[in-house]
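Notebook entry, structure prediction.
Reason for the run: the old model in the group folder had no record of what sequence produced it. Starting over properly, with the input documented here first.
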Amino acid sequence: MIGGASYWVELFQDRQRLGGGFLLTPRYVLTALHCLRGLTSPDERVDIVLADGSRLAGQVCRQDKEADLALITVSAAFEVRLPIPRAGVAHGGDDWHGPYRPAAAEVHLRGQVDSGSAEYPCEGGAVIEALQLTTHQHLGDYSGYSGGPVVKGLPEDREPLIVGILLEQAPDRAESHRAANVLFAATIGEAMRRFDQFDVEHLIDVLRPAKPAPEQAVRHHVHCRVEERGESGTGLGAAAAVTDLLLDQIEKWTQRGVLDASQSSELKFLTAKTFIERQSPGGEA
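New structure, fully documented this time:
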């Protein structure tokens, strides 16, 4: 079991630093795909180094080249129990900061959100939902910060809220060899929509309490909650309880603005549909 206080990570291969990222869940690390450009295969193994120096084994499991995003899975041999902040939505005028920096001698970025939901044509070719950010630090080049989390609010705030992932910098129009103090980040909602690991079928599989001693922290958490409701952890009752948990989570995402009304309705419908299909004859129990 790995514990600690920080959720950002650094990615390495054979002692070579690739870039930054952060734990989106206890099992998945999100990063910018261009941070992995030195890898030779799409499912390459990497080392995930936590803020406290703990080293985990990981593997690239998904890439979205057009959106410049990549997902890395943490090896099942490790159980990560870090306090991962909730995902949320940023709005124009909000403060933001970045807890990740490429080296100890580098500054932490902080600034203001200019736009909380802009359509942005990223270098990979996709038009993504992005945050346009102004940073107070005029560095001229922010490339080492790619893949780091964008956190709403100030560093001293008690409950951080992850709202995006840093991807690109805007060039200075007067000096094209330098970057302006304007950055672009994919929203967390955009990142979650890009990977099927976060669709309804997968979430139900992850939440299903199938073992008395689950390997994943999130499964253990759900198993306990099912028992608190008086369910046995198997069969129809447990499946219904897991479905309720997922519906509750969808509602929380909707209230925080991560999902809009149409997305929320579609996810709730698919959740109910999946539950019904799995309980019908021939479905998965």
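Summary: The mean pLDDT is 81.
The old model has been moved to the deprecated folder.
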